[in-house]
Amino acid sequence: MNPIQQINRVMLLALAPFLGALGFLAAAQLSVEFPKPVERPQVDLQLRESLQSALTKLDRSKEDAALTRTTVEKYFQFYAKSADEAARLSKLAEAAAERPAAIFDTRVASKLGGKVNRSASSANIDLKLYTFSEERYKGYALKVNLKTDKGMTMVLGGDKVGGSETTLQAVRRYGAVAGVNAGGFADDAKTGKRYPLSTTMVGGKYVYGFEPSFEDLTFIGLSTDRKLIGGKFYKQEDLDKLKPSFGSTFVPILLQNGKKQPIPPQWVSSPARAPRTVVGSFKNDQLLFIVTDGYDERGNSGATLAELQDKLQSLGIKDAYNLDGGGSSSLIFDGQVINHPSDNGKLRPLATNFLFFK
Q1: CA distance linking residue 65 with residue 125, whole number of Å
Q2: Cα 60 to the center of its chain, rounded Å
Q3: Least crowded by CB within 10 Å, which of 17, 170, 251, 299?
């Protein structure tokens, strides 16, 4: 055997197992599957998209937050400016509201000597006291601006029917800031008691019933809405319509709707001059009490009712009434007697007194 044949035999022997295996596989028709490439899970893609969406929203939130902050700051600045402007307008409104009152006070003061001697003010009342002089008499004027129904009342002497006390005693007993004598009285010679004259009301109730007006007697008081009321009343229902809170009786009527009323003849000359106490109301419902000095009740000193009509009318008083006078005239302010009582300088014990409270 030559060398080439030997080589071929060796090759056949070496390749025989592989050729046999290929033949077997071809005969058996077996298929071989190779592994597929591994795919990335779908969840990773969804997570990436969610994260990207969250980042986008976060960026938008930052932008919205910045815009919101800017908007809030602008509104805050606008509110601050509006609040300042509202405060400024409020002060202007208050000043405008107070201006008519200030003008009114100035006009009244100019006709009463131009100077306020004393004053008192609170949430309940404003009081201004003036001293003025006329050719024949000297007077004191107490201007009263009632803000609530707690600012003024009327009391019986010693808080009982038949009792009496001076205006100063009543002021001290009640702790009032001021006081003025009120209506007339009638004395019981047997008992020494002093009774309010005719129709009298305290605390919205009649002290001893209603009595129709006679001999020019006039009821003078305050209504529940703090308005001065007065006049002649012949039926209780006519007075009740005015809703009186308190009041007393004396004579006569001085002014009605700014017009002078006839003075009864006996009051023109008996006495002609005397210490007087009168009360009137302005168109704005503020009250004015005038008390005049006089050294006795014989008619030689003090003021006439006609002179007081002129004075009240010049001040712009709408309605006015005469209260008890002579030795009864009393004006108290801050615990001091302002006028000069005609009963030898002593205050007279009275059945009724008007009191004013801060």
Answers
A1: 56
A2: 53
A3: 17
Q: How many CB atoms lie within 10 A of CB 122?
A: 14
Listed residue (138, 171, 107, 105) closest to 291, CA to CA: 138
Residue pair 352/154 in contact (Cβ under 8 Å)? The answer is yes
Query: Own/partner pairs for 22-28, CB < 8 Å, 24+ apart?
Result: none
Distance CA 272, CA 304 (A): 6
Judge whether 342 and 294 are in contact, CB under 8 Å: yes
- Tell me: the pLDDT tens digits for 180-213? 999 999 999 999 999 999 999 999 999 999 999 9
Q: What are phi and psi of 260, to 5 degrees?
A: -65, 140
CB 173 within 8 A of CB 126: no
Q: Which residues contact 63 (CB under 8 A, 6 or more apart)?
A: none
Pairwise CA distance, residues 12 & 6, whole Å? 10
Q: Within 142-300, where are the H helices?
A: 167-174, 236-240, 265-269
d(CA 244, CA 230): 10
Longest CA span, the chain:
191
11: helix, coil or strand? Answer: helix
- The amino acid sitting at 327 is G
Q: Name the pTM for this structure.
A: 0.76
Whether residue 201 contacts residue 221, with contact meaning beta carbons closer than 8 Å, is answered with yes
Pairing mode, strands 259-260 and 253-256: antiparallel
CA angle 288, 183, 107 (to 5 degrees): 5
Please check whether residue 281 is in contact with residue 287, taking contact to mean a CB–CB distance below 8 angstroms.
yes
What single-letter DSSP state applies at residue 284?
T
Region class of 333: left (phi > 0), else alpha (psi between -120 and 50), else beta: beta
